[in-house]
Amino acid sequence: MKYLDEYRDPQGARRLLQQIRRTATQRWILMEVCGGQTHSLLRHGIEEALEGCIELVHGPGCPVCVTPTETIDLAQALSKRDDVMLTSFGDMLRVPGSEQSLLDVRAGGGRVRAVYSPLDAVELARRNPEKEVVFLAVGFETTAPATALAVQRAAHDGIGNFSLLVAHVRVQPAMEALVQSSDCRVQAFLAAGHVCAVMGYASYEAFARQFGLPVVVAGFEPLDLLAGILACVRQLEAGEARVENEYSRGVQREGNPVAQAIVREVYEICDRPWRGFGTIRQGGLRLRKAWREFDAEARFSCTDSLPVIEASQCLSGEILSGRIKPPACPAFGNACTPDRPLGAPMVSSEGACAAFYLYRRNG
Amino acid sequence: MCLGIPGKIVRWVHRDGTLAAAEVEFDGVRRVCHMACVPEAKEGDYVIVHAGIAISRVDPVEARRIFEQLEALGDDDGWRDD
Amino acid sequence: MAEEHTPNGYNARCPIPVSGSSDRITLAHGEGGKLMRQLIADRIVPALTGAELLRHMDDAARLPDIGGRPAVSTDSFVVSPLFFPGGDIGSLAVHGTVNDLAVSGARPMYLTLSLILEEGLHLSVLDAVLHSVADASAEAQVQVVAGDTKVVPRGAADGLFINTTGVGRWIEPVPRGPTTLVPGDVVIVSGPIGRHGIAVLCAREELDLHPPPISDCAPLHAPAAALVERLGGRLRCMRDATRGGVAAVLHEWAQACGGRITIEESLVPISPPVRGACELLGLDPLHVANEGTMVIAVAPQAVEEALETLQSFAQTAEAARIGEVQPNGLAPVTIRRLLGGERPLDEPLGAALPRIC
Questions:
Q1: Nearest of A304, A56, A194 to residue C357 by alpha carbon
Q2: CATH topology of domain B5-74
Q3: Looking at chain A from residue 257 to 316, which residues have their Cβ under 8 Å from any Cβ of chain B?
Q4: Among A107, A104, A103, A36, which residue's Cα sits nearest to residue A65?
Q5: Quick check: B37 and A152 CB within 8 A?
Q6: Do C279 and A4 touch (CB under 8 A)?
Q7: Which strand (E) or helix (H) includes residue C77?
Q8: What homologous superfamily is domain A5-58+174-237 in, according to CATH?
Q9: Which ipTM score applies to this complex?
Q10: C66-115 pLDDT tens trace
């Protein structure tokens, strides 16, 4: 496929790898923020090829993983109502809440359906007027335009039986929280390419200056990631801390202003709990008052939440914040595997634990 | 993250506002994608599609940059000594 | 009749319900009375053209001497939706059992057909499925020789379930199976992978991909028999890569032989629509089901002959070598990585669902 295959060229990848090895005079610690990047680094053997030269710390960038347990529990409670059809992305349906996943609830008779796009959920609402279609809206800034457009479409077409259970999260506040924690070892960031496609990277300029850390916007294919790592290493070696864009085919400094305007019209910034992290200030998005009629929490007045149960052996918080690597968790690969996950990073296909389990089990 | 796949705009279906949509091709299949975020994109352009919505236009000039950078690294096959 | 199950079809029939209405399956069709006899004698048997032995309607079919050792295989079929691009539950039920016999090294000859019908099923749907069973049987050169029909109350089945049992004759020498795989043996796939699973997923989840991806649902009896006949003992094993896709077959084989199987991702044939759909939905084509594509293991010196044999049949014209059996190592099944080394290829986890991450 054009714009994918050519960025997987092994010859070019080896050349960049060699250049990184030549440039680095010490073992720099880089964090790739996005789980999709973690996945690609492990899948293609980049992390291993850089061993001893660069340490890659895996960031919190998996929206499915950080969706709070209470939100999943709430979605499950809704899906058990006779009048509700609960929809979300397929990977979200596998994530365990306090007791079970949405797929388990479906097996028990709950109405749960995977969709490719939030707009498909609006179509389901149109075709099933007797049902309340709720879309569990997870995702970073990349996904927020899609869910915002879905409520706009529902409003435009007068589809009253559609609503969102919003669990959107914002990347930059999480990066700030990580950097400000006392034990943060990260020396440079690879910023998430598709988040930046929407949000741009101007806001990282102050971040890079304030914390003295290079930030390089990177894509998801091997050449994109290696070019991003090389740019980080060059800055670190030169003692610089700037923002660079190594995903310029899809990302501009100002991002996508049209998408940002759509998101701003529908959502406002709020504090939000992240699974494994606790509440992150300004770490999420919620529907604005004007769109409250599309807010599932308001529509179904779900106030009395059940107590949240987290698996005690699971160290997902440590993993999501980059303090430890997945194999360092005592449950990894034993009590916790993709078929019987204890924590979200083992469930989501892009969670760091699942990526390690899939690609480096014995590594 | 966010699974974002580049696809080629084959045909605009709706031009305006909330309904903006175009047929986008991904290798052998096409799907109607929401285009409100990339109103300036033209037929033949590539867009990055996430969850059914085009979030960004692929810049064909910038897309070549990495290969120019590789060229500049020279024909050095020094990687073989790894 | 046909228009009634099309969602927007105009239905100009009398609105007064008539008991014993003739266009749907009712519980009475399963009660053993006149309705049931009519259903079988007037509808099912005549639809199965070519099923000569079925016309006697005895409790048991009297098969002639099959001229060799018999092989038997059985499978049940449930699929939603019942009709998908490239096939339907009828063709699937024939090809599925035919292929199980064929990849074991037997020549499929006879089939039984058990239908479990949900009350309320349109007779037009049943007719279409039976028509498809007849066509698929003719294509695979098998005869339906016995059958059964049951009706279950509405909600107890998803329209229609089918069980088929197949009888065939072993072709000598019978492939010795995956336990005999040894390092150096070569793994081949018979065609582009993942077509059935993607076709059904797109149809079921209404993903609106165009053109709709088409299932590979087809019989493999001819290429499979040709491989057994031409390669003899150099053919180790064959397996149709149904649920769990190619990855599941490789795992089974690695476990059976106690070795390791390594494949080269770039050698695996994938059609553009499957590639596009898999990228878009975030699925691994190696995990996606096939219904007319098999995995084959041969001795290293038989690779060219195996590929040549496969390429002479339309259904397996795009056969390709994808990997080989190795001595024990990192994981049972591995994929060579872009930057050298290998990564484990896992068995698929449950149903394929579109994802964002």
A1: A194
A2: SH3 type barrels. (2.30.30)
A3: 258-259, 262
A4: A36
A5: no
A6: yes
A7: strand C70-77
A8: HypD, alpha/beta domain 1 (3.40.50.11750)
A9: 0.92
A10: 999 999 999 999 999 999 999 999 999 999 999 999 999 999 999 999 99
